[in-house]
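Closing statement on the EPU sub-project.
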Amino acid sequence: MQIYNDYNLLHHNTFGIDARCRKFVEYASTEDAQQLVKALTKADEPLLLLGGGSNLLLTGDYPGTVLHSAILGREVVRETPEAVWLRCGSGETFDDIVAYAVAHSWYGAENLSLIPGEVGASAVQNIGAYGAEACDLIDTVEAVEIATGRVVTIAASDCGYSYRQSKFKHEWRDQYLITHVTYRFNKIFNPRLDYGNIRAALEEKGIRVPTAGQLRDTIIEIRRRKLPDPKDYGNAGSFFMNPIVPEETYQRLLKDYPDMPHYVMKGVDGEADRYKIPAGWMIEQCGWKGRSLGRAGVYSKQALVLVNLGGATGEEVVRLCHTVQQAVKDKFGIDIYPEVNIR
Ligand code: EPU
């Protein structure tokens, strides 16, 4: 276990906010995590459970303790003719796991290529892209309960997964240190090509039926075209979640915006269909794409992404966030909410 006092978090948040925390603790095994939670006292609070810091906006110095997993390792724990189960340390870089799976001809993660962040966070945030979500792959999550030091194994079906949501973000918030995630990969390749411009991007390269490697490469190219590299502009990917609205709201919007992009979310068990409206599109319609407020800006190639134009404080980004939220509310009558963890 590594413990640092008065620690600078600049290299632990992709927004590039220059902030410090009172204490920073890194744990490298389940036993380490157990020891750590037993040693925590009231004086260490508030706690911040940090992954790769790619979905975090720090609004100032953090007054408590930041806990970070440095648990590495990947191990096949089960295999059948159809599938393989890979148990990964929560501190592994998620995209390294995607690359590893593709290289071994284990399928299902290609569309999640190049998402920044670590394995532990994939299970908290239910990261997603191009029609796929982490919960499609997650089999179990292992964690240490902070209150008791108990090791638990939680089935994905009990984690309450939905679009960018899980119980780890709500009723279980800050209660577990995730130590391992087991992903289930398919041995049969069933590419998902229906989202947005994947097919078109493949066809540009003369590919009709891609291999998993070609699909991964194409997803990487699409992301690089649209999303800023934190080395150029600090950012946390999509800043807002796409709102999901009922039929009547969708119909009301459609009257004014017949070309509005949208995804139908099929209702399950007889529930009505709902509609996901891209917040990036709404922000662009409001005229905010490429604009800035102080040193915080709306990215010029993807309006869902807020960027640090250089030396922005967390407060400046929050001010831009509120301004954009209000603009969308005024024009569309819809509330949009950050997906980024603001602390
Ligand atoms: N759009 C605009 N203007 C913009 C941005 C988007 O008109 O400035 C339109 C696009 O033309 C398209 C639609 O909005 O019709 C959707 O855009 P895009 O495919 O780029 O995806 P998104 O809804 O903006 C979501 C995820 C991304 C993920 C992409 C691809 C969320 C919050 N974001 O963005 O995830 O990569 O889909 O699947 O759901 C992230 O979470 O950090 C992230 C990058």
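The helical segments are 30-39, 94-103, 119-125, 198-204, 212-226, 247-256, 279-285, 314-332. With this model delivered, the sub-project is considered complete and its resources will be redirected to Aim 3.
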